[in-house]
Amino acid sequence: MNVRKFFFPALLLGGVVGLKSQVGINTTDPQGIFHMKNTNSAKQMGVVMPIVDSASITLTPTSTTPVEATVVYDNTAKCLKLKRDATWTDCLLDKAGVSSVVNQILGGGNTGVPITALKIAAGDLYFDNLFISREDSYVYGMGYSTLRSLAKADGPYKPSILLARPAVDISAGYANGLAVLKNGELWAWGYNPYGSLGLDPLSIVNGAYPYNPVSMVSKVPLPAGVKAVRVRTFGNSHTLVLGDDGLLYAAGQNANYRTGLGTNTGNTTAFTVLPFFKNLKTTTGVTVVDFNGSENFGQGVAITSDGKLYVWGNSNSTLRNLASATLNGDIATPTDVSANFNLLAGEKIIRCVVDGYQGLALTSKDKLYGFGYNLAGAIGLGSSNNFSPTEITISGKLTDGTDPIMDLAIEQNAAVVSTKLNIYATGQANGISVLGVGDNNNRSSFTKMTIGTIVPTTYTYGEVALGNYTSLIISGSATTQGGSKVYGSGIGYYNSLGGSVTYPINSPANVTY
Q1: pLDDT tens profile 81-91
Q2: 189 pairs with which residues across the strands?
Q3: Does residue 66 belong to any structural domain of this protein?
Q4: CATH code: domain of residue 235
Q5: Is the Cβ–Cβ distance between 305 and 286 less than 8 Å?
Q6: pLDDT one-digit tens code per residue, 264-316
Q7: Which of 4, 132, 234, 381 is deepest in the core (most CB within 10 A)?
Q8: Are residues 166 and 56 in the same domain?
Q9: Amino acid 46: pLDDT
Q10: CA angle (29, 35, 41) in 5-degree steps
Q11: 64 and 147 share a domain?
Q12: Looking at the structure, do residues 38 and 136 belong to the same domain, yes or no?
């Protein structure tokens, strides 16, 4: 919904009414006018209205001189704000709220307006999730804000604007988040004990320590000339950023060599280029195209433009959690493990996700591999454990090229895979239905989500996100494919799955404002 189209006709209509009738009835000097000029008059620009004791009697505060308040539409924050003294309030009603109100009026209050999104991110702590709205490309948050995980005071929040700037990527961690803007800037908020947001947690500003947590959405410095392209944060431990130069940058806790910076002591509180990939680009021209990692054990993985998979951080040769039966201990330098996959001539690895215990990898031939511990069936290879890279067959997935894998997610011993035509999940339900398969039971093989009851068969699927308590899905972008609608499963408490779901659900539901 275009908020300006919604509000300004109403303001114009109110202006006509205001010219013909008083506002602030029963006041000794009726206050409240529509004053749209930005002048140095006694009245301020905006809708100037009386402050009353109650809407039912429309009286100014008892025994006081009539006073007024000014309401304006803040085009940056995309919301209404009120000024009654020297300061402006926070948003009274933002675009998400307007959509919800309109829907309540038109739909009788029974359903919410479906959220459409370009990107989704599921948080690791409690019930905070993020999305980039398809409508305006702004970053929205929903759920329970803890330690400023939604850049707000502790408490539950329905979907609302978190960052009113066009964004292209987001990531949610353990009570924190980051966003990459269209202009390449990086912004962050929330819990920052190790400087994983690229802001020094011990910086003092005006006698206070503002960066632990980062209480408001803040711009993060990047190395000179570098623009961010993608970002992923892992718990509150460390964060990786892909620059427009094809290099990886890291910040946060260095334990286990998880940042890939070649040190395992202290914290790196400003984003710093990984030396290995800088040297690789200099000597061969090869750049980084994708990356992932995990706070569990402390790990990082990256895929390069020549289709190779590099890993670093804590590797257990028994668990094979980094796709290797020989790498053991803390790996200081990114190491190529591509040879451990049974790839055909010309076949490349194009995606990899890990959660500390195990991981998934996707190849250019649409083959899915699992490796690692397979705890609770997290990679869909039955009940056995400790796998070197092994190809996974998903029952029901078409193999004729019409149903390619679109996205992968793994977290807390559960995994979700989207194909063009279906969504599959495996592993640990965590007792809260994150698998979306219709019950709270674990699965040891990829099982189709029970989403077909609410989604037309013509819809396709794209990005998936998986947190400790919720899973999120985006439908195809075209109208016939679903129009980028968002669906979710798991814990719905505190608006973490939007305004319409307030309880745990074991099958995906519409996520709404």
Answers
A1: 777 666 777 67
A2: 177
A3: yes
A4: 2.130.10.30
A5: yes
A6: 999 999 999 999 999 999 999 999 999 999 999 999 999 999 999 999 999 99
A7: 234
A8: no
A9: 56
A10: 80
A11: no
A12: no
* Residue ranges in 154-247 assigned as alpha helix (H): none
Do the domain assignments include residue 74? Answer: yes
Starting at the edge strand that comes first in sequence, how are the strands of the sheet with 414-419 ordered? 405-411, 414-419, 423-427, 443-448
Give yes or no: residues 162 and 262 share one domain.
yes
- Write down which residue in 40, 75, 91 finishes a domain: 91
How many domains is the chain built from?
Answer: 2
| Mean pLDDT, all residues of the chain | 86
Do 216 and 78 belong together in one domain?
A: no
Enumerate residues 6+ apart whose C-beta is below 8 A from 213: 147, 148, 175, 176, 189, 190, 191, 192
Q: How many CA atoms lie within 13 A of 22 on its CB side?
A: 10
Write the secondary structure of 368-419 as one string of H (helix), E (strand) and C (coil): EEEEECCHHHCCCCCCCCCEEEEEECCCCCCCCCCCCEEEEEEECCEEEEEE
Phi first, then psi: what are they for 111, rounded to 5°? Answer: -135, 165
Give strand pairing partners of 292. Answer: 301
Both 26 and 152 in one domain: the answer is: no
pLDDT score of 362 more than 70: yes
For 173-207, b/e burial (b = at least 16 CB within 10 A) is bbbbbbbbbeeebbbbbbbbbbbbbbbbbeeeeee
For residue 421, tell me if it sits in a domain: no
Residue the block writes with tokens 């989604």: 455
Residue identified by tokens 């495996």 is: 426
Output the six-digit token pair for 216.
């408001």
CA 359 to chain centre: 21
Tokens (6 digits) for 57: 């009697």
Average pLDDT over residues 4-23: 38
| Tokens describing residue 498 | 């939007």
* Lookup: tokens for 95: 């675009």
Domain identity same for 63 and 139: no
Query: Whole-prediction pTM value?
Result: 0.82
E strands in 134-200: 139-145, 155-163, 167-172, 176-181, 186-190
CA distance 190 to 172: 10
- φ, ψ dihedrals at 196, nearest 5°: -70, -15
Of 3, 111, 162, the C-alpha closest to 499 is: 111
User: CB-based contacts of 105: which residues, under 8 Å, 6+ apart?
Assistant: none
Which residue range(s) make up the domain with 58?
3-91
In a domain, 71, yes or no: yes
What separation in angstroms does the CA of 424 have from each of 223, 360, 399, 480?
Answer: 40, 13, 15, 22
66 and 125 share one domain: no
Number of other CB atoms surrounding residue 138 within 10 Å: 21
Exposed / middle / buried, residue 467 (Cβ in 10 Å: 0-12, 13-18, 19+) = buried
In this structure, the number of other CB atoms found within 10 A of the CB of residue 153 comes to 9
Which tokens belong to 398?
């078409």
Q: 375-409 pLDDT, tens per residue?
A: 999 999 999 999 999 999 999 999 999 999 999 99
